[in-house]
Design a protein that fits this description.
Length: 158
């Protein structure tokens, strides 16, 4: 998924951004061993086993084709939840079932739908969730790789 460019000048926006980032990263971790672990001020620590992997142009294209609609759906889901909660978007990850089960019915339904959508999009584009997460980790940590992915995203948008 792609980074959101929300303003972080106010505490509620920073909290919202953090929640969305965690939701986005962990949404694809539902069935994967590479799911994020929430801790510390910035909240995300990943399994480092994925860093050693190299990704082909085909992998990057599959990732971009999946990540783009997932990001659009993430934004829609975030807005839906914000409307239901009066602006508060809880920190939730698709891999943390106990957090999801503690949500109220409508919010839980929106999160579950987003998680299913994300996993389905990833598989529809020829990737396993774990592979998608590994690419996302590299995208977040490697500037040259991020440029390759962004070029593919621009190509897809035409």
């Amino acid at each position: 998924m792609l980074k959101s460019h929300l303003p972080v000048a106010f505490y509620p926006n920073r909290m919202l951004l953090r929640s969305l980032v965690i939701l986005g990263f962990s949404s694809v971790g539902l069935l994967s061993g590479l799911a994020p672990d929430v801790s510390g001020r910035f909240g995300i620590v990943f399994n480092t086993a994925a860093y050693a992997q190299e990704f082909s142009d085909s992998d990057i294209a599959k990732f971009a084709r999946a990540a783009f609609p997932i990001e659009i759906e993430r934004r829609k889901t975030e807005q839906k939840i914000r409307a239901m909660t009066g602006g508060n978007v809880p920190e939730i990850g698709c891999d943390r079932q106990e957090d999801i089960s503690n949500l109220s019915g409508d919010i839980r339904s929106a999160v579950v739908d987003f998680c299913k959508f994300s996993a389905d999009k990833i598989r529809e584009n020829g990737l396993e969730v774990g592979r998608f997460n590994a690419i996302k980790i590299k995208y977040s940590s490697d500037l040259a790789f991020k440029k390759r992915v962004n070029q593919e995203l621009r190509r897809l948008r035409g």
